[in-house]
Amino acid sequence: MSKINAIITGVGGYVPDYVLNNEELSRMVDTNDEWIMSRVGIKERRILTEEGLGTSYMARKAAKQLIQKTGVDPDTIDALIVTTSTADYKFPSTASIVLGKLGLKNAFAFDFWAACCGFLYTLDVASSMIQSGRYKKIIVVGADKMSSIVDYQDRQTCPLFGDGAGAVLLEASEEENIGVLDSYLRTDGKGLPFLHMKAGGSVCPPSHFTVDHRLHFLYQEGRTVFRYAVTSMSEDSALIAERNGLNKDNIRFVIPHQANIRIIEAVAKRLELPMEKVMINIEHFGNTSAATIPLALWEYESQLRKGDNLILTAFGAGFVHGASYVKWAYDGKK
After folding, report:
1. Thinking of the domain 5-177, which architecture would CATH place it in?
2. Is 106 known to be catalytic?
3. Percent of residues, the chain, with pLDDT higher than 70
4. Distance between CA atoms of 121 and 186, rounded to whole angstroms?
5. Chain-wide mean pLDDT for the chain?
């Protein structure tokens, strides 16, 4: 029996229309374009401003575009997985809402929570599901409405984040040496003090106190997170490259989580890659958490060719981190 591989056969994406640029942000908090660009490399970010719309709206938009682009029969989808840190509700799952809106009749759905590393983890889990032979087609969506948990009075964190969603279709294939071929994923568990949201969970449920003291917003100790992210993403990418015979000559693109341009540059330097071989969207989208990698694939899709070697890498709250090797399965211009 031939080995089953999981291949990406299409990419969809969605970002809100509203653009929050650095000039406007500087009127909300004590910051400026030069400070933001020199430290993180973000010029603008997209924000979902419409009242009553959450992460599921963006995830549905990205998944619907994916289905239309690929022409896949919705009734043949086996599963829909949404990875997010900004679920619409504590329950039900955001994925169940998206599935219902899309009308997928023969699929099950669940959320996967691994912060900014969510897409990387979920891609590996979905690939394993397909490789088991039990499932043939799975939609993976990375989506986050980061504006819903950002404190726009905190000049350190509010310039960093934006909203968006990206989706990929994973399918079973018996073609050799193609698809999601290798992953190195780790969690060291040291990250709680440095990156978290204090209130809203079972340890610290919502109350008048938590609201009055602004405890429902993202907290980040930037220097510590930066140091861990640089080390982890660089070392993980180098490890994946080494054990798969990849180098600066045969890597087509590295797709890093878009948290900080200096982190991205450090990963490229470790792999000895020119920046032309790095997918970057941080300048105009900011950090969209679980959506950054699929959104980058969405924007760069036309440049990809069948057989291209890609390294995906990310780092997030927890601390969770890792890298994956994907051999691209189709010509993006088709």
Report:
1. 3-Layer(aba) Sandwich (3.40)
2. no
3. 99
4. 10
5. 97
Q: Where in the chain are all domains bearing CATH 3.40.47.10?
A: 5-177, 180-327
Please state, in angstroms and rounded to a whole number, the distance separating the CA atoms of residues 117 and 31: 28
* 25 sits in which H/E element: helix 22-26
Q: pLDDT tens, 65-101?
A: 999 999 999 999 999 999 999 999 999 999 999 999 9
The closest alpha carbon to 115, from 177, 191, 207, belongs to 191
pLDDT above 90: percentage of residues in the chain: 99
The residues, any chain, with a CB within 8 Å of residue 328's CB and separated by 6 or more, are 8, 252, 304, 305, 306, 307, 308, 309, 310
Q: From the candidates 5, 22, 287, 309, give the one annotated as an active-site residue.
A: 287
**Catalytic choice (257, 260, 281, 321):** 257
CA 332 to chain centre: 20
Q: What is the pLDDT of residues 197-242, one digit of tens each?
A: 999 999 999 999 999 999 999 999 999 999 999 999 999 999 999 9
Reply yes or no: is the peptide bond before residue 16 cis, omega within 30 of 0: no
Q: Is 196 a catalytic residue?
A: no
Check residue 98 and report its DSSP letter. Answer: H
DSSP secondary structure string for all residues of 198-246: -SSSSSS---HHHHHTT-SSEEE-HHHHHHHHHHHHHHHHHHHHHHTT-
Q: Which of 224, 78, 219 is nearest to 153 (CA)?
A: 219
Task: Give me the phi and psi of 131, to 5 degrees please.
Answer: -65, -20
Strands (E), the chain: 5-14, 18-21, 44-47, 79-83, 108-112, 137-145, 163-173, 179-187, 195-197, 218-220, 253-256, 309-316, 320-327
Tokens standing for 27?
């009127």
> Is 284 known to be catalytic?
no
180-327: CATH architecture: 3-Layer(aba) Sandwich (3.40)
